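Checklist before submission:
- one chain only
- standard amino acids only
- sequence pasted in full

Submission:
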Amino acid sequence: MKKLMLLLVLLGLAGPLRALAQASKKDQAAAKEVALLERQRFEAQVKKDYAVLEKVFAEDLVYTHSNGKQNNKQEYIQSIRDGRSQYDQIEVEALNVRAYHHGRTAVVNGTITITLPPKPDGTPNLAHLKYVVVQIKDPQKGWQVVLWQSQKQPDKGM
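Returned file contents:
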């Protein structure tokens, strides 16, 4: 009788364990996809590719700059158009993506160095940032950034 009960318990666990393994594969595939999309988004910010930016930022985006200023989607994209947010280059130094909910939600954290236009005296203008991003996979629109939060880091020379 005990063996029969143990067998029934083990059989009952087989379904959820199989579903968990499938979710894990979906999460792993989503993490790889989002890592690639992060790099493409940074490139679009540098190149001022507004079509890509309109697609990858969700309508309810909350974009918090390293100085604490927040923008919604329209404000942030407009800041790039107006030249208030300028990026000559964005170098990804570290990137970590974790996907959840069967590959429908991703949390990204990383470290980047942004090369900004030179300072008035001609010296290089770099920003070292740690950041966190939350992306949600919309069934019609694909992956979209819903949250960006960054924090300035000390200069590497210090």
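Reviewer check: The beta strands are 57-64, 70-71, 89-100, 105-116, 125-138, 142-152.
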